[in-house]
């Protein structure tokens, strides 16, 4: 049974169900457009995912069949009516960038479950996630250039590193909408599923990840991030430094025992 956590805000529900944290953008009256309440909730949620030893993966989704319609400039410039949110906004440096997964990305995988609109800041959130499940009726796109704006959430840097250059420039420079089928063909998303099924499929993937060795999962993420711009020879040195402690861990020994004994492994993150 999922438990709603006290770090939730009026526009962001944060729930924990075992090893999985489910973060729901909850401002359906504005198509889950970004607000201070939402970004503070996101920033606290990602910090919680990283800090809690028992949490192994996070899921990001949106309420009422919409993921996120991007920035609501008026709402983002308006202080929250919630006293705790106002305090956290003052306490968290660059809470908006942390919430958008631009800065200080979680040390554990984040899966997005997308239904409906995921445009502008919604697509930037998707690009900041590690795995992406998208409903077949969803709409993606980075509309900023069409509005004479700039994708400040990091997509101008990340998108050409994640998918082929020509595809990335098509999305960024035209500001057009992108269908889930196109996004899948480009390699931008992992799975396209029937409408209404994105969260359920994301949860299946989350449970698969949560059943793996948590030290290994975090090490794989960390290695990718720390070696992205390094030559292979230097990258392999970083990979060895991160990987050898995992090979020698108690979890690795448990994985070998479980395989030999033909039983599910019980990992403790040690």
From TrEMBL:
<protein>
    <submittedName>
        <fullName>Crotonase/enoyl-CoA hydratase family protein</fullName>
    </submittedName>
</protein>
<comment type="similarity">
    <text>Belongs to the enoyl-CoA hydratase/isomerase family.</text>
</comment>
<dbReference type="InterPro" id="IPR001753">
    <property type="entry name" value="Enoyl-CoA_hydra/iso"/>
</dbReference>
<dbReference type="InterPro" id="IPR029045">
    <property type="entry name" value="ClpP/crotonase-like_dom_sf"/>
</dbReference>
<dbReference type="Pfam" id="PF00378">
    <property type="entry name" value="ECH_1"/>
</dbReference>
<dbReference type="InterPro" id="IPR014748">
    <property type="entry name" value="Enoyl-CoA_hydra_C"/>
</dbReference>
<dbReference type="GO" id="GO:0003824">
    <property type="term" value="F:catalytic activity"/>
</dbReference>
């Amino acid at each position: 049974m999922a438990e709603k956590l006290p770090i939730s805000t009026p526009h962001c529900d944060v729930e924990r169900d075992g090893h999985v944290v489910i973060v729901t953008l909850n401002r359906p009256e504005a198509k889950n457009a970004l607000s201070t309440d939402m970004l503070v909730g996101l920033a606290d949620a990602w910090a919680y995912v990283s800090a809690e030893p028992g949490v192994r993966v996070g899921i990001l989704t949106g309420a009422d069949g919409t993921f996120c319609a991007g920035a609501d400039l008026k709402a983002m410039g308006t202080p929250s009516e919630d006293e705790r949110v106002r305090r956290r906004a003052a306490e968290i440096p660059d809470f908006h960038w942390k919430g958008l997964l631009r800065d200080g990305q979680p040390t554990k995988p984040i899966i997005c479950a997308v239904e409906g609109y995921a445009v502008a800041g919604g697509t930037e959130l998707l690009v900041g996630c590690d795995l992406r499940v998208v409903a077949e009726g969803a709409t993606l796109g980075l509309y900023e250039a069409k509005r004479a704006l700039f994708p400040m959430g990091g997509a101008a840097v990340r998108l050409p590193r994640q998918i082929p250059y020509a595809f990335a420039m098509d999305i960024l420079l035209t500001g057009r909408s992108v269908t889930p089928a196109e996004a899948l063909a480009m390699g931008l998303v992992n799975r396209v599923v029937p409408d209404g099924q994105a969260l359920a499929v994301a949860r299946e993937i989350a449970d698969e990840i949560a059943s793996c060795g948590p030290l290994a999962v975090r090490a794989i993420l960390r290695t990718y991030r720390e070696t992205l711009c390094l030559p292979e020879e230097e990258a392999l040195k970083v990979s060895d430094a991160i990987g050898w402690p995992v090979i020698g861990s108690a979890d690795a020994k448990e994985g070998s025992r479980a395989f030999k004994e033909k039983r599910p492994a019980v990992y403790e993150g040690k």
